[in-house]
Write a structure and sequence with these properties.
Layout: H1 8-18, H2 26-33, H3 42-54, E1 59-64, E2 67-71, E3 78-82, E4 88-91, H4 97-103, E5 118-121
Parallel strand pairs: 3-5
Antiparallel strand pairs: 1-2, 3-4
Helix pairs in contact: 1-3, 2-3
């Protein structure tokens, strides 16, 4: 994690994000950390998520039922969102990003640095 100045709560938010592949919301993170950090506020979670996102440590991957969902896995991958239960799953390609962007026709783009591809459907659990 690249931080400007150390914060125990920020570190806890980041470590919890790293420890799960559930792509949690700020509310989920808040409810999970509140017992350990009784003075934690939901606003603190949101502010730290935005800071972690701005420094490239986490990314917002989708909005499900009005809640932004986050991911700390920064290796190139896409996501699948279940329209039934709201579950967010990682999707990995065997092709490299270069292969994918070369196959995509992008009018006016000189160079593609990143992409955000989200699939929607129904997961195996539903």
């Amino acid at each position: 994690m690249r931080t400007q100045n150390y914060s125990r709560k920020r570190q806890a938010i980041y470590e919890l994000l790293l420890s799960t592949d559930a792509h949690p919301s700020a509310e989920w993170l808040y409810n999970s950390l509140k017992p350990t950090y009784p003075d934690l506020s939901l606003g603190t979670v949101y502010r730290n998520l935005k800071l972690l996102e701005s420094n490239g440590s986490v990314k917002s991957v989708a909005v499900v039922d009005g809640c932004e969902r986050y991911d700390a896995r920064m290796t190139p991958h896409s996501h699948f969102v279940c329209k039934s239960c709201g579950r967010v799953l990682d999707v990995f390609f065997t092709e490299s990003m270069n292969d994918i962007t070369e196959k995509a026709y992008i009018d006016g783009a000189k160079k593609v640095d990143s992409y955000n591809l989200i699939f929607y459907g129904v997961c195996n659990e539903c």
